[in-house]
TrEMBL record:
Name of this chain's protein: DUF7144 domain-containing protein
Organism: Streptomyces wedmorensis
One protein family per Pfam: DUF7144
Keywords linked to the UniProt accession: Membrane, Transmembrane, Transmembrane helix
Regions that span the bilayer: 20-44, 64-83, 88-107, 113-132
DUF7144 domain span: 22-132
InterPro entries in alphabetical order: DUF7144
The keyword Membrane is annotated on this UniProt entry: yes
């Protein structure tokens, strides 16, 4: 009898899916924290931001601060749901990451390099949440609870 045990191919798939979900949760929590910090800086009218008087989507810097602060808080909360493998968090995570992309696109003139970084980071979150198979599972290969995508 063979003493070595080879795990079934499906457990490798489950481990990969769980790892991708955890990656998305970490990236979304980082995007949320950074959005919160950016929002606080803008509300305090820090001198880090560039002023562009002739921008089509012109908002007051404080207005942008509140938008980024609220999106950051929601993104951070949704990332906690992703860590728990909640199906609602997967759908909401995709939506919040899309809103973060839109908000950062619209605020490109105020903080260009940071906006591009946040757009890329949120795009990676969307990719990770969309690519993981529907039957997510934890690393041990056991299916997670709840309804999955």
């Amino acid at each position: 009898m063979n003493a070595t045990h080879t795990p079934p191919a499906s457990s490798a798939k489950y481990a990969w899916a769980g790892g991708l979900r955890a990656f998305a949760a970490v990236m979304l929590s980082l995007a949320g924290l950074l959005g919160i910090f950016r929002g606080i800086m803008a509300i305090a009218e820090d001198e880090v931001f560039v002023t562009t008087p002739d921008y089509v989507f012109k908002f007051d810097l404080t207005g942008w601060g509140w938008i980024h602060l609220c999106l950051g808080i929601v993104a951070l909360l949704v990332s906690f749901g992703l860590f728990q493998a909640a199906a609602w968090a997967r759908y909401t995570g995709i939506g919040i990451a899309a809103l973060v992309i839109i908000a950062n696109f619209l605020s490109l003139p105020y903080y260009p390099w940071w906006s591009v970084i946040m757009i890329v980071m949120s795009g990676i979150v969307i990719w990770a949440l969309c690519v993981a198979p529907a039957d997510d599972a934890d690393v041990s290969g056991r299916p997670t609870g709840g309804r999955q995508l």
